[in-house]
Amino acid sequence: MRVATFSHRGIRSVGRLLPDGKHIQPLDLGPIAQHAGALALVQRATGGGTPQDLGDPVPLSEVKLAAPIPQPRRNIFCIGKNYRAHAEEVARSGKGSAAASDKDPVPTAPIVFTKVPESVIGPGETIRIDPRVSSKIDYEAELAVIIGRGGRHIAREDALDHVWGYTIVNDVTARDMQRRHQQWLLGKSQDTFCPMGPWLVTRDEIDIADTRIRCWVNDELRQDASTSDLIFDIPTLIATISAGITLLPGDIIATGTPAGVGIGFEPPKYLLPGDRVRIEIERIGVLENSVALWQDE
């Protein structure tokens, strides 16, 4: 099942994409869905509730898609350097974070950082570059996990039972800030730096052991890999994060990006105003966002 958060005639709703791929069936999730989006469905599902259809299907062409979870309940968990080739390209560039771990490019344990909820934008929205803050803006195509049933000290062998589904995240990064501050929160959490979507896909629809991830910038294929290349697989990530931290329904874990990011080229290929970033993950769909300069209100 594919679940979208969308606006139709000025009203935000949540619905499931019908098999024809051209219509969305709104779901009866009450007023909470107008703010929480698909998070309302995830929370209801963990309590055993099944929402009813609400009204008639709506043509996909008539709606504006939002991020599936427009306002995550807390910071997004993210994994750094989780593809061997990406860890090596960042180390070769000498332009990534100045962390000591760069001396050994392939980590021996998951590197976990977070992005603030306010960085999230939806499909078709604009990634904004603020030259007062950074000019070295990079893209990172990632598969994101949506937690269903929460828990603490989740065993690796039980971890997938705690997954509700998956979506696409672009972990946009200010590389100069990442290096300057020697940590990742600021460079990862700028406004508009977390495009997400186009919808959530339930876990039964995806083979996470071998799912293809690709990213284009202006029609140039930059990233092309499979989740089979992950250094730390999804069960390991869930077990690691939940060791001492209680995961909650709707929590999001971005699992890391493959090789081919802008910093890995010589010279680097950072994002510029007018660029388009298109990410496609097999069995999920396409997330596309343009790039422009920041505009103060």
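(ticket continues) Second input and output from the same batch:
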Amino acid sequence: MFKSIQDDLDAFLARDPAARSRFEVALLYSGFHAVAIHRLTHALWRRGWRLLARFLSQLGRFITGVEIHPGATVGRRLVIDHGMGVVIGETAEIGDDVTLYQGVTLGGTSPAVDSASQVGQKRHPTLRDRVIIGSGAQVLGPIVIGEGARVGANSVVTKEVPPGVTAIGIPAQVVMPKDKAAARAFVAYGTPEGCPDPVLMTIENLRSQVADLKERVGDLESQLRAERARDRAS
């Protein structure tokens, strides 16, 4: 237990340049408090003390501004940076060395609202090791975010993201291909420098297609005028 707490503290020190000491993180970081409370509530949940687990998790939500359902599975060295507004659902699974920023939602989707039909059903995302989710991003449904993948700020993800890529936008699209070396590097807010804008890319692609079509139409008009000139001459 103490080794797990130490690992969590060290993870905050490694990924937050504002953190100066373990003592500062332990005393002042709401993200660390939320993870520590969840480790307690999850242990209670697994042992069948589910009402107490939910009560303590809601108390933790009031204190930290982070809502983690006690049924969620959280790996080692999770960092919730800034933390306020983070929501992690019951069947969410989070791997090791994952980083979440403020306003992130790991939400569930289900075609039914009948609670009896959802017992034991996987409704929330799975985040593999070293995933980074930027602030305000919404990851929805029983999808998998691959190892080392990054989701940019304010993105909405409803489909699986392959390992080692960067996805941004609404809906999220892969904008940077897999790079084994870069995938292991930490990138704040999940958005690497020089990351292209998918909307701008789409607009530029459409502009290029329109330019090609205009050129082809001009060629056809020139051919048509030439044929009409030959017909009049004959």
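Agent notes: The CA atoms of residues 138 and 156 lie 5 Å apart. The chain has a mean pLDDT of 85. Closing as not reproducible unless the customer responds.
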